[in-house]
């Protein structure tokens, strides 16, 4: 147990400042409390180093995939903005 806050409270505090930071909840509880994000990646205690490494790798892989998707979308938007004519611009040749 952590003094001053629970793991879920810590995750909530982290997500306020770093919403895209992957998190992993290591817990000895079988179920999360009502109202907790049930999709939160969890690792049940006790766990082995291999299980920890796998859980971290999985959390980081999801984060990387989301970042690649986000960056690809932004790149497409930026490319469209550069190639499309601006307001009041004619595409006809004189």
UniProtKB/TrEMBL annotation:
Source lineage: Bacteria, Pseudomonadati, Pseudomonadota, Alphaproteobacteria, Hyphomicrobiales
Any one GO biological process: phosphorelay signal transduction system
What sequence ranges are listed for the domain Response regulatory? 1-60
Q: Which SUPFAM superfamilies match?
A: CheY-like (SSF52172)
Give the source's domain of life in one word.
Bacteria
Its source organism is Jiella pacifica
Output this protein's name. Response regulatory domain-containing protein
Q: Which PROSITE patterns does UniProt cross-reference here? A: RESPONSE_REGULATORY
């Amino acid at each position: 147990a952590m003094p001053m806050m629970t793991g879920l409270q810590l995750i909530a505090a982290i997500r306020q400042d770093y919403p895209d930071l992957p998190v992993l909840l290591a817990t000895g509880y079988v179920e999360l409390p009502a109202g907790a994000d049930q999709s939160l990646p969890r690792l049940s205690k006790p766990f082995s180093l291999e299980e920890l490494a796998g859980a971290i790798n999985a959390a980081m892989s999801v984060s990387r995939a989301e970042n690649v998707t986000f960056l690809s979308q932004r790149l497409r938007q930026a490319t469209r903005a550069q190639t499309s004519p601006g307001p009041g611009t004619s595409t006809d040749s004189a």
